Amino acid sequence: MNDTQKVNEIFNHARQQEPNYSNASFTSQVDVGIKRERLLSRIRSCSIMIIAALIGIITINTQIPLHLLLSKIPASIVINPTSIMLAVGLSSGLCYFTYFVLED
Q1: How far is CA 49 from CA 12, 45, 52, 95, in A?
Q2: Which of 23, 26, 83, 99 could be a cystine partner for 19, CB 3.0 to 4.6 Å?
């Protein structure tokens, strides 16, 4: 007996013992018996995300005062190759994110 026959015998035995391994009626009955939950609509999903973001913003605002964050914003902008590449990368990321969100 070679290895291929031995492996086939093992799988055949498993399929006979467990109907879940083959496409027998057990799996289809279980699949039909499970009630599928209704998916959230896009508006509900977005509203949940907005509420979570607002909770996060409120939590951060209580821990870090807003005037400290505003004091970290620079008063002048220096344009150099690094800042140009950063702007290109951020705009590309924003375009990809917009495409990903709007894709259906």
Answers
A1: 49, 6, 5, 20
A2: 26
pLDDT per residue as tens digits for the range 65-100: 878 878 888 888 888 999 899 999 999 999 999 988
Q: Which domain holds residue 29?
A: 3-33
Letter string b/e over residues 46-69, b meaning 16 or more CB atoms within 10 A of that residue's CB: eeeeeeeeeeeeeeeeeeeeeeee
> For the chain, what percent of residues have pLDDT higher than 90?
22
55 & 97 share domain = yes
Q: What is the model's pTM?
A: 0.33
47, 87: one domain: yes
Tell me how far apart the alpha carbons of residues 53 and 41 are, in angstroms, rounded to a whole number.
18
54 in the same domain as 83: yes
